[in-house]
TrEMBL record:
This is General stress protein 17M. It comes from the Bacteria. The gene is yflT. Residues 4-99 form the General stress protein 17M-like domain. It holds the Pfam family YflT.
């Protein structure tokens, strides 16, 4: 199943969204945060105890390839690795370019 994605304006909104997902029964293992900047993503993950999209989701090849990609290409590859289509990944990457934050929940 496709993950659900929330596009949020601020880190605080992301914190609240993760908290809401927890209250609705989502496991921390199924919740991801993503911002355009790696440092922002990492600080959000720390603040929410959510995950970042990393090697376990991307696989070794994609993770290694991301070292040589532009940031936009890297973000799109990360989004596709968790089950979004190429078109959806492009759409959400554009939101990240605008400074938005994504909270992604995998559905089992």
């Amino acid at each position: 199943m496709k993950p659900t994605v929330q596009v949020l304006d601020t880190g605080m909104a992301a914190i609240n969204a993760v908290r809401d997902l927890n209250q609705r029964g989502y496991s921390q293992d199924d919740i991801y945060v993503l911002a355009h900047d790696d440092d922002h993503t990492d600080s959000l993950a720390d603040a929410t105890n959510a995950n970042t999209i990393g090697m376990s989701e991307e696989g070794v090849f994609t993770s290694m390839a991301n070292l040589f990609r532009s940031r936009g290409d890297e973000l799109r590859a990360k989004l596709e690795s968790i089950g979004l289509s190429e078109q959806e990944a492009d759409q959400y990457e554009q939101e990240l370019d605008k400074g938005k934050v994504l909270v992604i929940a995998k559905i089992h």
